[in-house]
Design a protein that fits this description.
The protein is an alpha+beta fold and 72 residues long. The chain has one domain (1-72). 22% of the residues lie in helices and 19% in strands. A three-stranded antiparallel sheet has the order 1-2-3, covered by helices on one side. A hairpin with a 3-residue loop joins strand 1 and strand 2. The structure holds zinc ion (ZN). Zinc ion is lined by residues 10, 12-13, 15, 31, 33-34, 36. The site of zinc ion has 8 residues, from loops.
């Protein structure tokens, strides 16, 4: 199965990205080092969950992340 979701290094600090599920209905990728993160993508069932994971992984891998550091 082509099911493995590959995450690149953090586009901000080169740390490790992790899939983080929130409340069983949404997922984002977050950096374990600098807390940069993608937007949350919501899902309602297992199919959507997989698509949501792919979606946030894609955002992460192309560098569409939000840095939680505010300025400076
Ligand atoms: Zn980072």
């Amino acid at each position: 199965m082509e099911d493995t979701i590959e995450l690149e290094e953090c586009p901000i600090c080169r740390g490790a990205g992790m899939l983080m599920h929130e409340g069983g209905w949404s997922v984002q990728v977050e950096c374990v080092d600098c807390s940069a993160h993608t937007v949350y993508v919501e899902y309602e069932d297992d199919d959507e969950k997989r698509e949501a994971e792919r979606a946030v992984a894609h955002l992460w891998n192309i560098g569409k992340v939000i840095s939680s550091e505010r300025g400076e």
